[in-house]
Each structure stands twice: as C-alpha cells, then as structure tokens.
TrEMBL record:
It comes from the Bacteria. It comes from Paeniglutamicibacter kerguelensis. SUPFAM superfamilies: AhpD-like. InterPro entries: AhpD-like, AhpD_core, CMD-like. The lineage of its organism: Bacteria, Bacillati, Actinomycetota, Actinomycetes, Micrococcales. This is AhpD family alkylhydroperoxidase. Coiled coil: none annotated.
Length: 155
C-alpha cells in the first residue's frame, strides 16, 4: 500500500454507504411525489457535480440524464444556463436552488436566490430540490475523496 493509493470510503464502511444510498432513495421518492421529473433530477445532479468537480459523478449522471431524455445541447450549456432560454421556469428555479445549496453563497445572496425560486416551486418541490442537492453533494464528496476512477466507455 502506498499513501497515494485511493481510500474508498464506500468500501471501508459499507453500513454508512448503504445508509447514504437509502437516504438517496427517500430523497428520490420525495422528488417524484413533488412532481419533479427524473430528467430534471439528473440535470441537477450534473450541475452539482460540475460545481464540485466530481468526474466520476459527472460521467454517471450525464449518461443517466441522456438516457432520461435530456439533450446534449442543454447539458453542454448547463454551466451557463442563466445565459440561455433553453430552461423553463421550474427548471431554472430548481437549478438556482441546487446551486445555492451547493455553493452556499453569502447569506443575502442565498436568501434572495431561494426566495425567488419559492415563487415558482411548490413547497414540496422546493424541499425536494434542496434534499436532492444535499444528497448529490454527499455523493460527490465520497467519490472525490475516494478518487473513484472514470472508466473508458464505448458509447
């Protein structure tokens, strides 16, 4: 063993990993119950993974977003979603909430961003997006700290 070898958190404490996955399933169910479509949740997962710089999660969630019907164009412009008209009001509000939950900007900016999103999202959707972002942030951290490798895929 070398000190530079990855330490896989998910393999070292499988009970905690299983608990995180169970939490994620509850969050997914809350999103579905709130009327958020799977494609949007995957779009949020991609955006959060972009912000956090998690290559492993980006690889997985871009593929899942495409499989869910997301377009390559919208994924390509996702880092600059505010500069396009490709995202509807609900998607834009959800992206704003996910970004605020991930980056935790200063209090004034965060409160303003979340308040404007609440004008578009129902309480259940607003809650579900925040929980989805919290879950994705946790998965990003596990993958980044574990140095999960991105394997070459044949598409």
């Amino acid at each position: 063993m070398s000190l530079s070898d990855p330490f896989f958190l998910d393999k070292s404490d499988t009970d905690s990993w299983k608990a995180l996955n169970a939490f994620s399933l509850k969050v997914k169910a809350a999103g579905e119950a709130a009327g958020l479509d799977y494609r949007l949740i995957e779009l949020l997962n991609v955006r959060i993974s972009q912000i956090n710089g998690c290559a492993f999660c980006l690889d997985m969630h871009v593929r899942q977003a495409l499989e869910a019907g997301e377009s390559a164009q919208r994924i390509a412009v996702l880092p600059n979603w505010r500069e396009t008209t490709l995202f509807n009001d609900v998607e834009s509000a959800a992206l704003a909430v996910a970004e605020a939950t991930t980056t935790l900007p200063d209090s004034e900016s965060r409160i303003a961003e979340l308040a404007s999103s609440r004008l578009v999202l129902s309480d259940a959707q607003f809650s579900a997006v925040q929980w989805a972002a919290i879950a994705m942030n946790a998965f990003n951290r596990v993958s980044i700290l574990s140095q999960h490798p991105v394997r070459v895929r044949k598409y």
